[in-house]
Specification:
It is a single chain. With about 700 residues, this protein is mostly helical. Helices cover about 60% and strands about 5% of the residues. Helix 5 links the parallel strand 5 (about 160-165) and strand 6 (about 185-190). This is Tetratricopeptide repeat protein. InterPro entries: AAA+_ATPase, P-loop_NTPase, TPR-like_helical_dom_sf, TPR_rpt.
Length: about 700
């Protein structure tokens, strides 16, 4: 029978205990195959389809290449000058042909010309493999090994890969899929000769012709306005050198001023280009002059926000974060963001957030920030943003974990306007929506030497990881948090981050590494005289022992931990240790003994504001009653816990309850129902690489083997 492990919900610090024989990938001999359950969506990573003007001839050329008979994967390199619309073209075509690639569409912005460091192929491969269903703990660390595994996984698949803004051929080569039924589209300003020599097909995208340029203006400004000022419109087209990005920026300014004659824009743009002519050459003049002119027409406070937004660590930002960055009110932030959107410098997206209209626009803003804003301006702006993220994440954490008080969240002064939440659901939704930005903020704080901010931010994200999983990302965040804690010489912080990292490693099945981290934390707590935290590390070592299959050690450690917590008067932590102990007993088929410990744990939790762990106790009771033969009571407990976890918004908790219900159905011979429960659990979890993910996946695959 496949092992049942509730590792993601065992303690509100994660990890639980393995029930039954554990299937671990590191102990599998022979070939490893990756299958995705039918209910899981294939990767569909393409950004929204842009509006495309003209380009019919290039689209036809691309279609002809794809239809040519070949036994090798098609790779197309789309090149052309900056701002010519390579990204829009490739993305529009990718949407047109996506139905031909049923195994998924992968997308990566390689950031070859974004002003920062290009994205490494190693990182992109990690993201791609994860999206294709490879568990995190099976993704190797080295580039060559990742590339080999990527070729293996894609060998028989039909996938479409879009690699935008490449810098070099070396950045692209490891990301090419192996299947002849797959296709890859690469965009770059450069003719990457190393790729072309390998048989990659090249497509050059030229500037618009006059008519296409006028069509773009007509769409933005209306036919009447364009026809009435046709001569000025034609001059504007040439001043923008018929580049779509320059035309779009100019058109946005004109659209926001319906009474403004096109002739005035022409005059201003011509003067701007005369100033730039001595500094830049070629098409850069048209792009820079269009962006500069749009920028110069911004009011000072709007221009300041434009520059500061280039400092934002993530790709998408909301009004509250922008307000903190600039040190302005939320109302003022929303107004200024609207002005930047009207100027086509920002794009508003569906979730109420914004991003730069194009990587070149962000680069333009960054260059202006470096030139116009001294470090004395930039550093405090970043500090305000990090302070807002720390304070807001701390508010969300308190909503989700109200029993945790006096946590160190003082690395930055509190923001002028604190964002709070109406309840746990709102808090969890915010944490999930800001997950990428919070992770980037942890890294940014560490890179800038704000070490206390970095580890405290990492610590605030634990509530998100507890409820939602995200094991791969969680590991990276906590490794950065540990490095930051060590850099600032804070033993307390180091101990906390060691515990966090150990729990993440344990949840991924890396038990030996987890033990090392827990033992390091244990030594710190003993040095600091933190008895309760010392017991916590011993308890976590019990969890790791359970993961290793050493049940006797696990039971001894967890029994001792529950007794020590009880002596310290820590009712909540006593309950958590009892739940862990019950998990080990379940692994030994001692269901009735487990029920005794779980009922006591539930009684202790009734006096604590901890709905998550109370629901978790219910899930374990469902498993315990099932093991002791009381299937009706097991069903009642599991369904009640499923409802509670759904109300809390915890994907981890819902998946655990669904897995229990699936096992009950399987015990009763209802295989179809059991499979549906397992597939629902797997879909809720996502491909997070945890022990639980691998276990449920194995359950589903066993149905396929057994027919």
């Amino acid at each position: 029978m496949v092992n049942r492990n509730l590792s993601e919900i065992v303690h509100n610090d994660v990890t639980g205990v393995v029930h039954g024989p554990l299937v671990q990938a590191r102990d599998v001999f022979g070939g490893v195959h990756f299958h995705t359950a039918a209910s899981l969506p294939v990767p569909s990573q393409l950004p929204p389809r842009p509006r495309l003007v003209d380009r019919e001839a290039v689209i036809a050329q691309l279609d002809a290449m794809r239809e040519e008979p070949t036994d090798v994967p098609l790779t197309v390199l789309i090149t052309g000058p900056a701002g010519v619309g390579k990204s829009a073209l490739s993305l529009a075509w990718a949407h047109m042909i996506r139905s031909h690639f049923p195994d998924g569409q992968l997308y990566a912005d390689l950031r070859g010309h974004s002003g920062g460091d290009p994205v490494s192929p190693q990182k992109v491969l990690g993201d791609f493999l994860h999206s294709l269903g490879v568990p995190t703990d099976l993704i190797p660390g080295e580039l060559a090994q990742r590339a080999a595994l990527y070729r293996t996984v894609t060998r028989d698949q039909r996938v479409l890969v879009l690699l935008d803004d490449a810098m070099t051929a070396a950045q692209v080569r490891p990301l090419l899929p192996a299947s002849s039924a797959s296709s890859t589209v690469v965009t770059s300003r450069y003719r990457l000769a190393g790729l072309l020599m390998q048989g990659v097909r090249g497509v050059y995208v030229d500037r618009f012709d006059v008519e296409a340029s006028l069509t773009l203006l007509r769409v933005a400004l209306g036919n009447d306005r364009l026809e009435q000022q046709h001569e000025a419109a034609s001059e504007l087209v040439e001043l923008c050198m018929r580049l779509p990005l320059a035309l779009s920026v100019a058109a946005a300014r004109l659209a926001s001023r319906p009474s403004w004659p096109l002739r005035e824009m022409v005059t201003a743009l011509a003067e701007e280009q005369r100033t730039l002519a001595a500094l830049t050459i070629g098409d850069d003049v048209a792009l820079r002059s269009a962006l500069d002119l749009s920028y110069r027409e911004l009011r000072p406070d709007t221009a300041r926000l434009y520059r500061l937004l280039s400092l934002f660590p993530g790709e998408r930002f909301g009004g509250d974060a922008a307000a903190a960055l600039a040190g302005i009110t939320r109302m003022e932030s929303r107004r200024l963001l609207g002005e930047l959107t009207d100027a086509n410098l920002l794009t508003d997206i569906s979730d109420g957030r914004y991003r730069f209209h194009h990587a070149l626009v962000r680069l333009h803003a960054s260059q202006l920030a470096q030139a116009d804003d001294q470090r004395e301006v930039r550093d405090p702006a970043v500090g305000r943003l990090l302070a807002w993220y720390l304070a807001t994440a701390a508010c969300a954490e308190r909503r989700l974990r109200p029993y945790r008080t006096q946590l160190p969240r003082d690395a930055e002064p509190p923001p002028a306007e604190v964002t709070d939440f109406g309840g746990p659901g709102d808090a969890l939704e915010w944490l999930e929506s800001e997950r990428a930005n919070l992770s980037a903020a942890v890294t940014l704080a560490h890179e800038q030497g704000r070490e206390a901010t970095s580890w405290q931010l990492a610590d605030t994200m634990w509530a998100l990881f507890l409820f939602m999983g995200h094991h791969a990302e969680r590991l990276e965040v906590e490794e950065t948090g540990l490095a930051a804690a060590r850099s600032c010489g804070d033993l307390y912080a180091e101990g906390k981050m060691l515990n966090r990292l150990g729990l993440s490693l344990n949840a991924l099945g890396r038990h030996d590494e987890a033990v090392t981290r827990f033992e390091e934390a244990l030594e710190i707590w003993r040095r600091l005289g933190e008895r309760e935290r010392e017991v916590g590390s011993l308890r976590r070592l019990g969890l790791a022992a359970a993961g290793r299959g050493d049940h006797a050690v696990a039971i001894a450690r967890l029994t001792d931990a529950s007794a020590a917590y009880h002596a310290l008067g820590a009712d909540r932590k006593t309950a958590l240790a009892l739940i862990d102990l019950a998990g080990v007993l379940l692994e030994q088929d001692r269901g009735l003994d487990a029920v005794v410990h779980l009922e006591r744990a539930r009684d202790l939790l009734l006096g604590v504001d901890d709905a998550y762990n109370l629901a978790r106790a219910g899930i374990f009771l469902g498993y315990a009653h099932a093991a002791s033969g009381d299937h009706d009571e097991a069903d009642r407990e599991l369904r009640a816990a499923l409802e509670e976890m759904a109300e809390l918004g915890s994907s981890v908790g819902r998946a655990a309850a669904l897995e229990g219900l699936g096992e009950l159905a399987e015990r009763a011979g209802r295989r179809g129902e059991a499979r549906r429960m397992y597939e629902n659990a797997l879909e809720i979890m996502g491909q997070d690489g945890s022990i639980g993910y691998l276990r449920i996946k194995a359950r589903i695959e066993s149905f396929d083997r057994d027919g």
